[in-house]
Design a protein that fits this description.
It is elongated, with a radius of gyration of 27 Å. It has seven helices and six strands. Strand 4, helix 5 and strand 5 form a beta-alpha-beta unit. The chain has two domains: 154 residues, Ribosomal protein L4/L1 (Ribosomal Protein L4, Chain: A), CATH 3.40.1370.10; 40 residues, no CATH class. It is an alpha/beta fold. Belongs to the universal ribosomal protein uL4 family.
Length: 208
């Protein structure tokens, strides 16, 4: 069972927390991590590319020249794919690139990503994270106290907090989200994962 220190906003250790083995100490399945990242990136693609076939290109009703006697190859339409300005043989059409993973596979991928952060000592637990007013300087001070100010950091909260969200959003490389939006891609994208104690409990409850 992983035991991690708990820090306050001043960067001082105020206790320890036992993490669930089933969530933060599982086997890291690299295949599922790869599939989860592919799924998220594929779902972000717009899929709006479009080109016209020969049937959709305007014009081409008249035969360019007569069939025989011109010493040139026979053609029936100026909109043939062989011609400049003609249609495309197998054009891209609007489509959805996204696909879905089985729910159990997605949950295991999320556990693998969390376990990887624990093994790399990149997971930090905060007793609480609150600001009276939105202030980027205050958020930067907290990250400095935790020695992660110069790294990509993902801040995860149990509940939506506008003051925290607005305080960190202008810091380069720093993102924030609720536990219900936690995903494999964002965990792997950031160097450090910063969780509040309440957020840890929510994650363990969801993935147990």
């Amino acid at each position: 069972m992983p035991i991690l220190p708990v820090y306050n906003m001043d960067g001082k250790k105020v206790g320890e927390m036992n993490l669930a083995d089933t969530v933060f100490a599982t086997n890291i399945n690299e295949h599922l991590l790869h599939q989860a990242v592919l799924m998220q990136l594929a779902s972000r693609r717009l899929g709006t590319a479009k080109a016209k076939t020969r049937g959709e290109v305007r014009g081409g009703g008249a035969k360019p020249w007569r069939q025989k006697g011109t010493s040139r190859a026979r053609h029936g339409s100026r909109r043939s794919p062989l011609w400049v300005g003609g249609g495309v043989v197998f054009p891209p059409v609007p489509r959805a690139y996204g696909f879905k993973m089985p729910k159990k596979a997605w949950r295991q991928a999320l556990r693998s990503a969390l376990t990887a952060k624990v093994k790399d000592d990149k997971l930090i637990i905060l007793e609480d994270l609150k600001f009276e007013t939105p202030k980027t300087k205050a958020a930067l001070a907290v990250l400095n106290n935790l020695n992660v100010a110069n790294a990509k950091t993902l801040v995860v909260l149990a509940e939506k907090d506008e003051n925290v969200t607005k305080s960190v959003r202008n810091l380069p490389g720093v993102s924030s989200m609720k536990t219900d939006g936690l995903n494999v891609y964002d965990i792997l994208l950031h160097d450090h994962l910063l969780l509040t104690k309440e957020a840890v409990g929510r994650i363990e409850e969801a993935l147990a």
